[in-house]
Amino acid sequence: MRALRQKAALARQYGLFRAASAWNVTTTLLLGIFVDESAMVNGGDESSYDLLEPVAKADFFVSHSWSCPSWMKVLAFCHYFNLDLAILSSFLACLLAVLLLLLHAGSFSGIAQQSQQVLFGCLIGWPTIAFIVPYLFGHLTVMKSFWFDQVCVDQAQKEVKAQILQTIPAFIAKSNEMLVDKTYFERLWCNYEIAVRARTSASTSAIQIVPMWMPLWTLVWFITSSIASLFETGVQSPKFDRESRFSLFLSIFNSCPVPLYVYFVTALPFGYFCIQKIGSHKKMLDQMRNFDLRDAKCAVESDRQVIEVETKHTRVSAVWTAVQVLQLFDEALQQPRSFCCTTLESSPTTLLLEDSDDDPDETASKAIQAIRHVTSYPSQEEIIDQFNDYVRGPLCDSVMKVMGQEDFISLKLCLVVVFPVWLMGLAFVLGCDGRSDCETSAQYAGFTSVEQYMLTNAAVNLFLQPFISTLGLAAMLKMNHLGSTLKGSTGFQMLVGSILSGSVLKAGDLLVFAQHGILAVVVTQFSLLWLAGLLACLILDVGLLWLLFFRNPLRPTSLRSLAAG
């Protein structure tokens, strides 16, 4: 649109568009932990802006709410850029550990002869460190450019700052992607920025929403799972009853060594983060559904005039200073600058020529205002209402398609946080259930060979256990959501949610041991009836997977409707 092209030309003329590195962004945010952010807005470091080189475009436009704590933004930044690197690093570290153990032992069964401390240190501790370090610091290697207001807006010179704020729509349009935190939807600037991006981008992945709860939840649950896995060091499986198929099944099904209270204690911290996630997600959606531009907040109230319209009444007509939101959504400004109206002594085109010293968009707005009462163009209030409807409708719907409802969590994130469970399973498989003699473990479990035992053990510990744990995380979130709907204090809701979550954890372990028992019976004492039971269990697993992650019609998709505008 014409207004954006003019703003882009202004930014190029004065070198206003500057970009920072990932290091600049995170260090500025960390500095905000020790310095009052409002002070940084009103009087930031002058040199931080001056040291940046002018650019034609940036890789990322970072939109955020100043009310969100800086340390949460840092973690969200790390999560978005470093998660995949951390996963890959941890997985490669695990493969390297297995390779070194295999070379040292000479065979997979020989690895079990190593001490349990060595096995758990190599297969759990080392991959955990290989995950956390890249997760927190991997972005320092990202060769990307960022537009981030705390760095890329001159906070010291008010005139330059005003020019930069006026040309922000051009910066948004000139950035490849837009990162936003999900605490921002009550903020005036943030809603406008995402609206500009939605109207100007043709990419289906141009807007990336980074929830603030997600990185802390990921780190806490990942570390908790790793520590819990370390406590399993040296635990040996019992000797199973092989007298009959049913006795073998019962001996495996009843072999769960975890006391009942452990499930509920474990569910408490998870319940806390679930309540936080549900509350922040619901607040975000409510803010969008009830959004009103007139009530939106500014971190610095003096910035409001850059977005809204200031109407001045004179004896002849109203003078309309059309900026930002009204330029974006005013139908009149999207039409060609020519009008036919005999009621005016001078046409709008003449006004444009006569007021050549004025801003073209402002002059056109004055002309349009003069004839608006005889046209079908919307009034100022109607334009604001159109913007409100846009945020409440298409924008909110698209965000819900990306983020889902408040009780939804992505399959990828669940797989990430149960990765330590998979590592623990790998340690059990290679450690032969805590025994240095794999033949003895195979005999105790009722298998005729070590290979048969290790393959079955791998199926249980490397597939069934992590898979059921993944389903359990999503189910626990839904249980906490159920608890959050009850009347009462947050503590009461969290307690109810934790009790329900603990029940989910216990039910998940019972399901794992039941399927383990059925699989052991099928492998050692084959029966078509037990095979049918195993297939039924697998169908149940797939059904739960669909129900928890894919049944929701508002599950994550691309922001296609946003990009289409």
TrEMBL record:
This is Solute carrier family 40 protein. The keyword Transmembrane applies. Keywords: Membrane, Transmembrane, Transmembrane helix. The keyword Phosphoprotein does not apply. The chain crosses the membrane at residues 80-106, 118-137, 209-231, 251-275, 409-430, 458-477, 489-508, 528-550. The lineage of its organism: Eukaryota, Sar, Alveolata, Dinophyceae, Suessiales.
